[in-house]
Design brief:
The chain contains nine helices and six strands. The protein is of the alpha/beta class. The chain has a six-stranded mixed beta sheet with strand order 1-3-2-4-5-6, with helices on both faces. The longest helix is centred in the middle third of the chain and has 22 residues, at 117-138.
């Protein structure tokens, strides 16, 4: 009788591919098939069409107004081969958003398909639902939610600048992994502008039920938002200390946020 494999127990705590076993010099057939399935799911997540109409209905049920925007990437093939075009608005969308400017607002939420529409469909509305009570507590006004097609992270800054937002948070599908094709990321920028650097954004990643859950992600984003409005910055100069128990009440502002 073979002794128990200590690695097998660890499989209960991670989706990582460990303790796969072997058949001779190769992987067992089951694991080869599982790998092929995971790879196919990752490819499907990248190419799944962005169903913005369904998201718009769900957001409107929460009492939120929505707008649509498209990057300069005309289709998925162009998007995957020209990342630069996914970072900027198409001229038509820029004109439409400029014409739709409403009253000034503190925060703009952008939902972008990114590299996994599947992640956006599964996670974005749940995260926004968890975030809304924090925005009320912080007293931050919210602009219309922009649903962005063929989007890269920097597209949020372009949209935020066009709509004259004080801060923008883009919820975007992350690059699918072989165990996580549905992971959502959030990138927060203070005073968004097209010339913003990657280092001027804060990121919250791996938002999904098996990773960072909605309530925890909403708390982190609310903490960063409060600090961004107090300090007038985001990025490497704004460290995420939301896990510090001594600061857990900081999302309940004791002073009025400066305007």
């Amino acid at each position: 009788m073979n002794p128990p494999d200590a690695w097998t127990l660890l499989r209960e705590f991670t989706d990582a591919r460990i303790a796969l076993g072997r058949s001779g010099a190769s992987l067992p057939t089951r694991e080869v098939l599982n790998f092929g399935l995971a790879h196919a799911q990752a490819r499907d997540a990248i190419h799944q069409p962005f169903d913005s109409e369904s998201l718009a209905r769900q957001l409107q049920a929460l009492g939120l107004k929505t707008l649509e925007a498209h990057s300069a990437a005309t289709d998925r093939h162009v998007y995957l081969n020209r990342p630069d075009l996914g970072r900027q608005l198409s001229e038509q969308s820029r004109a439409e958003l400029t014409a739709s400017r409403t009253s000034p607002h503190d925060l703009l939420l952008v939902i972008g398909d990114g590299l996994s529409s599947h992640a956006v469909h599964r996670q974005s509305v749940g995260l926004i639902t968890a975030l809304l009570p924090y925005l009320q507590t912080l007293g931050l006004s919210l602009g219309p939610v922009v649903l962005a097609h063929q989007s890269r992270v920097a597209l949020g800054d372009d949209i935020g600048e066009t709509l004259n937002s004080k801060a923008v948070a883009i919820l975007i599908g992350e690059r699918p992994g072989l165990s996580s094709p549905d992971s959502l990321g959030v990138y927060l920028t203070w005073k968004p502008a097209r010339k913003r650097l990657e280092s001027e954004r804060n990121c919250i990643s791996n938002i999904r039920p098996e990773g960072l859950q909605f309530e925890a992600a909403a708390f982190k984003l609310a903490w960063l938002l409060e600090q961004a409005f107090l300090r007038r910055l985001t990025g490497v100069k704004l460290k995420d200390e939301s896990d510090n128990p001594a600061l857990h009440d900081r999302v309940k502002p004791r002073i009025a946020l400066p305007r």
